[in-house]
């Protein structure tokens, strides 16, 4: 489930308020770190529709936290599924990442996966 965000600044940056939601109803008192899990999928399991993989990954994360975005890209000839989400701490983020990888693994062979945490404009691997 994606949430529409309002309250952007003139530079186009979002302040993270959900449309129609009063500021006091925001679930966190402080900014919540952003994480992402990237999965490089391999061969599809028999009978799996390729279009079902990204929605399944987003749903797996969405059952546990707020999903910020989900994309499929082709990088250097390899497909890559990315799900970006919020989590209160690194342990929760790791749990969400494992759930996404497990769900994707039911549909395709997972070649590699990695959970990263955003710090400023950069993404750093979880330890």
TrEMBL record:
Segments for region (Disordered): 1-30
Protein name: Uncharacterized protein
Species: Cellulomonas aerilata
């Amino acid at each position: 489930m994606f949430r529409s965000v309002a309250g952007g600044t003139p530079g186009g940056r979002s302040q993270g308020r959900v449309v129609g939601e009063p500021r006091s109803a925001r679930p966190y008192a402080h900014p919540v770190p952003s994480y992402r899990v990237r999965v490089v999928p391999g061969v599809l399991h028999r009978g799996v529709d390729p279009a079902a993989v990204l929605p399944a990954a987003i749903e797996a994360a969405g059952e546990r936290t707020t999903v910020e975005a989900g994309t499929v890209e082709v990088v250097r000839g390899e497909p890559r599924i990315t799900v970006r989400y919020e989590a209160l701490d690194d342990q929760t983020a790791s749990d969400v990442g494992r759930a996404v990888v497990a769900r994707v693994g039911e549909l395709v062979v997972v070649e590699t996966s990695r959970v990263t945490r955003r710090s400023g404009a950069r993404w750093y691997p979880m330890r």
